[in-house]
């Protein structure tokens, strides 16, 4: 009996100790919970609440976009090529070392073995202007790549602004759908009460339910559109596939619809495509001069020093095993006759120059049309905002009157539903008009070459 009591006491004590250890672990975990919250959960919440402005999105796109980075590397490559041309016309120094061994019977005439080293300096004196032309062509190459980067930057900034306002549009459409949901819920309650009281038909209640179902689908569709718009903006700005952000702008704020037409006159000089084509024409003309330089003589001076080590007798003057000497040469290369090949190349280049000039003229005309079209499109967006705003005011008044008349019993629920649908469409049209204005404004800046400024 005593043994049994001792065993029970031991078991109880062991259980108490185990429970105490468990409580200690729980307290220890609870003590670390605030640190875990601060270290892990809080940063997640902070990132989820990140608010992006349009300017911040533009800045991130400029810093992270791969196309802009690639364009910068092309500029570096063009600068490296220019650095090569900048040292043209300077003397070049070449060294060489040659070892030789001759067998019979040559070793009876000349030294059997030896080592010869040489150092040569060559200085072009006259190249027909090729050195100067090469430098100018390389400088044009840098200029073209710089304008190409501006062109890429313009496209990236326009895409960024478009993606940003698509996110704003998606958020506003969710707000509109939720607002409509509240109005439909209130209307359904009124219709159901009237139906219960026997003052309206069940058909009105069913129509309200159908509208509610359609509204739920609109909310789901708007949420999906917001997710896709955020993913698009994240990809453009280098946020990878993150959607844990929101945007700072909203469409309820007043929009400045004053259009500045001063950039229109500067568009042909601001557009990077025009600058690239202008520089290309200049480069082709330099290439033509480069080909013409091939018809002129070329003059160069070379100074060479040589040494030789080897078997006794390598020096013919004293039969020693060492020899050192030098020599210089003046080279004059005069083109005489090549069946007209070089002149045909010049003629071919002339045609290329003419082609580039026609392309430049065509692009200038296209730019003028693009700018005019973008200006007119922006003006249409301004008019659309004004008309949509007026239609929304009228739709709001119509909805208010319909609700008042429904409460007074002069119209049925179907009429209120129609008024609500008209209001929703008018509100949607105004949102779309404002978003389109923002996108058209960016397109106008892109057309005039001022979006990157």
From TrEMBL:
It is found in: Cell outer membrane. Keywords: Cell outer membrane, Membrane, Transmembrane, Transmembrane beta strand, Transport. Pfam families: OEP (PF02321). Its main location: membrane. Gene3D superfamilies: Outer membrane efflux proteins (OEP). InterPro entries: OMP_efflux, TolC-like. Belongs to the outer membrane factor (OMF) (TC 1.B.17) family. This is TolC family protein. It comes from Pedobacter alluvionis.
């Amino acid at each position: 009996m005593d043994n049994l009591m001792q065993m029970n006491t031991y078991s109880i004590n062991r259980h108490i100790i185990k429970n105490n250890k468990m409580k200690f672990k729980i307290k220890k975990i609870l003590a670390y919970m605030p640190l875990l919250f601060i270290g892990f959960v809080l940063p997640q919440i902070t990132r989820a609440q990140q608010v992006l402005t349009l300017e911040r999105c533009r800045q991130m796109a400029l810093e992270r976009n791969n196309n802009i980075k690639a364009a910068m590397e092309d500029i570096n490559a063009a600068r490296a090529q220019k650095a090569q041309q900048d040292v043209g016309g300077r003397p070049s120094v070449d060294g060489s070392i040659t070892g030789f061994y001759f067998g019979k019977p040559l070793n009876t005439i000349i030294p059997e073995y030896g080592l010869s080293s040489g150092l040569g300096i060559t200085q072009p004196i006259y190249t027909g202007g090729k050195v100067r032309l090469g430098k100018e062509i390389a400088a044009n190459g840098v200029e073209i790549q710089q304008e190409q980067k501006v062109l890429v930057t313009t496209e990236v900034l326009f895409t960024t602004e478009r993606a940003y306002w698509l996110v704003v549009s998606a958020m506003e459409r969710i707000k509109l759908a939720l607002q409509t949901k509240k109005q439909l819920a209130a209307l359904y309650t009124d219709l159901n009460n009237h139906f219960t009281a026997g003052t309206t038909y069940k058909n009105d209640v069913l129509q309200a339910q159908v509208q509610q179902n359609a509204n739920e689908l609109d909310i789901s569709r708007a949420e999906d559109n917001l997710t896709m718009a955020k993913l698009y903006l994240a990809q453009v700005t280098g946020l990878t596939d993150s959607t844990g952000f929101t945007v700072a702008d909203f469409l309820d704020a007043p929009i400045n619809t004053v259009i500045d037409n001063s950039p229109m006159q500067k568009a042909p000089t601001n557009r990077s495509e025009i600058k690239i084509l202008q520089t290309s024409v200049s480069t082709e003309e330099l290439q033509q001069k480069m080909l013409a330089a091939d018809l002129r003589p070329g003059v160069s001076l070379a100074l060479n020093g040589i040494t030789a080590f080897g078997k006794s007798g390598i020096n013919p003057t004293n039969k020693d095993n060492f020899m050192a000497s030098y020599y210089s040469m003046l080279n004059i290369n005069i083109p005489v006759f090549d069946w007209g090949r070089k002149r045909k190349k010049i003629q071919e280049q002339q045609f290329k120059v003419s082609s580039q000039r026609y392309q430049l003229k065509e692009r200038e005309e296209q730019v003028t049309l693009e700018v005019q079209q973008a200006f007119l499109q922006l003006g249409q967006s301004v008019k659309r905002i004004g008309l949509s705003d007026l239609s929304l005011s009228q739709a709001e008044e119509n909805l208010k009157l319909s609700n008042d008349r429904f409460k007074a019993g002069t119209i049925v629920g179907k009429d209120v539903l129609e008024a609500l649908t008209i209001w929703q469409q008018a509100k949607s049209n105004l949102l779309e008009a404002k978003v389109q204005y923002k996108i058209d404004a960016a397109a106008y800046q892109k057309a005039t070459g001022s979006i990157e400024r």
